[in-house]
Amino acid sequence: MALSLQADLTLINGALRPDVTVHVGGDGRIIGVDRPGDETEDEAEGNVVEIFSATSGEFAAPQGRKIHRLRKRVLLPGFVNAHSHAFQRLLRGRTEFRAPGRPDDDFWSWRNAMYKVTQALDPDELEAVTRMAMMEMLLAGYTHVVEFHYLHNQKNGQQYDDPAELSRRVLAAAESAGIGITLLRVAYQRGGVGLAASVEQRRFTDPDLDRYARAWEATVPLVELGSRRPVQIGMAAHSVRALDKDFLEGLGRLAEEKGCVLHAHVAEQPREVEECLQEHDCRPLELLAASGLVTERFTAVHGTYLAAEEADLLGEAGATVCICPTTERNLGDGLPDLQALQSAGARLAIGSDSQVRINPFAELRGLEDGERLRLGRRNCLAPAAGGPVAPYLLEAGSAGGARAGQLGAGSIAPGQRADLVAVDLEVPMLAGVLEGRESDGALLAALVLGGDSSWVCDVWVGGRHVVEAGQLLRWPSAVEDYRKVAKRVWG
Ligand SMILES: [Zn+2]
After folding, report:
1. pLDDT tens-digit map of 246-288
2. Residues 144, 263, 280, 302: which is the catalytic one?
3. Which of 178, 218, 238, 264 is most buried, judged by most C-beta within 10 A?
4. d(CA 471, ligand 1 centre) in Å
5. Residues 257, 291 share a domain
6. How many helices (H) does the chain have, and how many strands (E)?
């Protein structure tokens, strides 16, 4: 699989460099980055392990390598989708109406529609829907997905003979799509404070930590399925409403023991905060921190209604917050205080969550646009000392997500996984952006604040070329399989 790529422009450490050659080894990792005529600076920065060509303007590839020249392309680190429920792709377009007598349509009525889908899917169908969503992610430039997987049981609530049956289906879907995956086996215990799981929720539940731990252990060997691709298995607490304090504490210990990432939905809705205050006399993130979950391996998903002290807890732990702007807007969740998180030192990542859109550019600009609307100012997430906003947002989209998914990926540097995305510089929407002075900064800003997933032309996952000239192998059959499921569920 040895491969060398050279685009017109390559994003390295937040800046665009011309004619860089990226060399990929047989293990799918970047083994060298060659920046012609830039050796002195490389050494000063101390971040280049190998330089293959020392001659400015010439490209002497290592023996036996062919350089794949990407003309009129900009090469970016692959985007990481740090929060996804792939099956919710089935809800696209199905919840955008107001039922008669329901002027108060909100998150909770959307949740009822989502439950209808979770009741309907058998294992084959779950796999078909998941594959479709993950293929769409690849076409959009996501090279890795962190799947927050909470559908575990049969429709009657009984475990499958293999408690990891549906996890296996999700991993198989990722394998056939060709995307890297961190599968988070989600813990879900109850319907809410003092409430057993409802009929609709019984496909999600593990009644106690022992059963959860056994199911998690049954999931770990499935990693072999993904031998051609990067696969990780992690843990998640669905939310503070779905688990009692004992379960949360046990989950924190288990994640610590296994050294894996741990995610949780946190403070997406005011009702969740109120219920937590009533049950525990503290706010959700405070409860999670007191239960031992909030470490540098922790990711809080949403964080829409965090108090300032909760943002500080995340920053002090070196934790990540995954914001899902297109979903949060679609569900009417609200706008999180990103400046508070940024200044507390929490890292940001993005997720497509409900799949209302699968477009990393839309999520990234959603971070900044949301702050602009919330504060009535501009360039809100740019460095406090001044500077452009786009590099920070791009970092959240790749390195921030890689951290949340426990990956050695997210930047174009030796040792990193070769998860790469080439974007077409010849689309008419970018005409003129590269002319004149400071055009590199203009290009990055135009990509992040106005870019579209349709501009993505090539994608590599672990050095494997999975999207070529905007096309994905087996895409037509995946769409056909998916249509059949949609027809049965909505027929
Ligand atoms: Zn979610």
Report:
1. 999 999 999 999 999 999 999 999 999 999 999 999 999 999 9
2. 302
3. 264
4. 29
5. yes
6. 16, 17
